[in-house]
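2024-03-11 09:14:02 INFO queue: dequeued item Lipase -like, len=492
2024-03-11 09:14:02 INFO validating residues
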Amino acid sequence: WPISVRANGHILLNSEKMSKSTGNFLTLEQAVEKFSADGLRLALADAGDTIEDANFVEKMADGGILKLYTLLEWLKEMIETKDELRSGSMESFKDLVFIKYSNAWLGGNDCKDQSDCVSCTNHKTWSGENCRWCPQDMACHAQGSLVNKCSRTENIVNPDDCDKIVHAKYDKNLAHKMIYLCALAYSDDVAKYIPKASEVDTFHLVKQVTKPCSGGALCSGFVAVSHAEKAIAISFRGTQHFKQLVNEVLRILVEPKKSFEAGGQVQVYFSDALDVVWNDLQKYVNEEMNSYPTYKVWVTGHSLGGALASLASTLIMYNGKTTKDNLMLYTFGQPRVGNYDYAFTHDGLVPLSFRVTHYRDIVVHLPTCKTLVPGTPCIALGGWPYHHGKEIFYGSEIMTKSSPYKTCEGLPHNEDLGCSNNPAVWSKCLPIELLACIDDHKQYFGISVGTWWKNQGKGNTSAMNISSGSHQLLSFYIIPFLLFFASLFFYI
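2024-03-11 09:14:37 INFO prediction written
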């Protein structure tokens, strides 16, 4: 049975329309008899493969027969003199090129035929690259495949990594616990409020570090341990007040990014804020991880705290303090921390990295990424801000533990246009629903993250009641957020 059907316009013979009346006519049977089947195939292959007129040229068919005859004679000669041919290693450049192209022509680069990780990653494409195994769809892909659901860092390329696959699956129950750890970080007395947070009341505080940082604020982070959860929690405080927010915005707009130890470049303000806390806190974090090496490591933060949690988790993994399947990063309303190189580095080191976003949350779009036209995909090149981690998008105004969510796996990776990056979502903040966008940043899972501790966990935490005070805070927030949107045009 034929495996394909050719479709052309007119069939020409020697560049002229075939016609019985003019005698310019040739049947397939006559052509096979005259040129042989293989000679005819060569001529047909050269005739054209589009809907344009196909031109069968007899000189091409004659030339094909000559080439086939020459090839046959050469093969006979090689067989007869095979003992005189070069032997030994086939590692020269010419040998490798020959092998690669032979594999390609013989179908040896067909990655999709490989059914498991080991056979996939041991298989080579025509360019010599390993095929890629994607844990998400459990399929083998060639480099650059458009149907590969995995990002670059999720793909398995080395056979030795097949038994180290970490399946990144979002846990909404864990996220609900993490948001209370974020809320606790806004307090200067975490130990006092842990018992009031029923979701995480089995934790006991190991150390809280609170120090002055840029903008006249107090940057803070803490480490706590729960033997019931068998977990070590690390949480960072978000932006504390108006003056700090203005300082944060201005420094992001004016200062160039700085190189990060683990790789890539990050915003200077975020890096400096982490240093203020981490230089003292990491000692206690390391002690807890050494004391309880089998405990899970939970790293979290809201807003600015999410950026600090991102950097801290990357450093922990970069320094080999735990394994990839043991550390989980959950951030809420996190801004873009660095450029694409940092995002790529982070995703490779921290596969269990989730960015939880709440509908119109304005901060998750800041600092703005580079696009050709607003509303088009973020550009990864050029050092512009770029998100890391898998986005978990809650697309409704009221966000509770049971609210539906979307795991964002569309393109471009980490900047899925079908989630918070959808122009239909973020354009609401320009400026018709600015207050609602601010509220969506302040509230996650029905609690006001930054002020929960002030109510000692007893206040009415419905989204409606929490948002009612936002109108009184308009003058407090609108200037820095407008400055953020100025970055759409003036970001350095």
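2024-03-11 09:14:37 INFO annotate: The mean pLDDT is 83.
2024-03-11 09:14:38 INFO item closed
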